[in-house]
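Quick log. Single chain, no ligands specified.
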Amino acid sequence: NVNMQRLSENGVEIFFTQVFKHNFFHADMHPGNIFVDTSNPEQPGYIAIDFGIVGSLTDSDQNYLAQNFIAFFNRDYKRVAQLHVESGWVPEDTKAHEFEAAIRTVCEPIFDKPLKDISFGNFLLSLFNTARRFEMEVQPQLVLLQKTIFNIEGLGRQLYPDLDLWQTAKPFLEDWMAKKYGPLAAVEKLREQLPEMGEAVQHFPQLAFSTLQKLSEGKLVVQAKGKQLEKIQEQLQENQKETRRLIFSGSLLIASSIALSLGLQPEWPAWIGVGLSLYLFVKR
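-> predicted structure:
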């Protein structure tokens, strides 16, 4: 007499609660590790055993995953592509419109179908494969998450094949996002950080004075890494070439003008020098 629909929906909510609220999830949720409390058949409870494999996510991973799921539910594939770039899961120079089109091709066919007609695990696998085409690096925490979703999907099909995974998960994630990143959450976080902020403010004048002093003495060093450093180096090299061209053309122009004014050489070589120097200057 267990309410299978309620049991399956509770299972989805339990999983998302572990992942997003507790940040510590059972990563081996196959049927052998799940028992059912039937003391209240209309509100059946889960009893999980064997926590030999567990997973955890960083705050940033939680945030980006939740936003990804919500964007999926809203079919906002542009936002999904942006989130993959912002999170660093794909390179920052990824062409967002191409990535968005690839994601749309994978995601669009699965919507508006009951769980029995789709494989959420296979959908995630296709999504990750698509991301790998765009040089997505392997994220161990996401692999564990994907593995667990495969388990939940199989369990959900056994319990209640018509479970709508999207509609069950979306309200939970929207509520979690509101509590985690909404106005009240921001105020609470600010209240918690007030002591640290107060201490930092006390040191700010001395830090500002020290920084300005180093800047005035030419001792302030800024470090750049990765592609930004490469771009800076390329720009410096181009600037050096530009400087050499300007010096050469300027020197040629001055020498030719002096030669013309002093009559040290025939006019036509001097005028050629003037013309060449002007050409080099305009070409830059």
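The radius of gyration is 31 Å.
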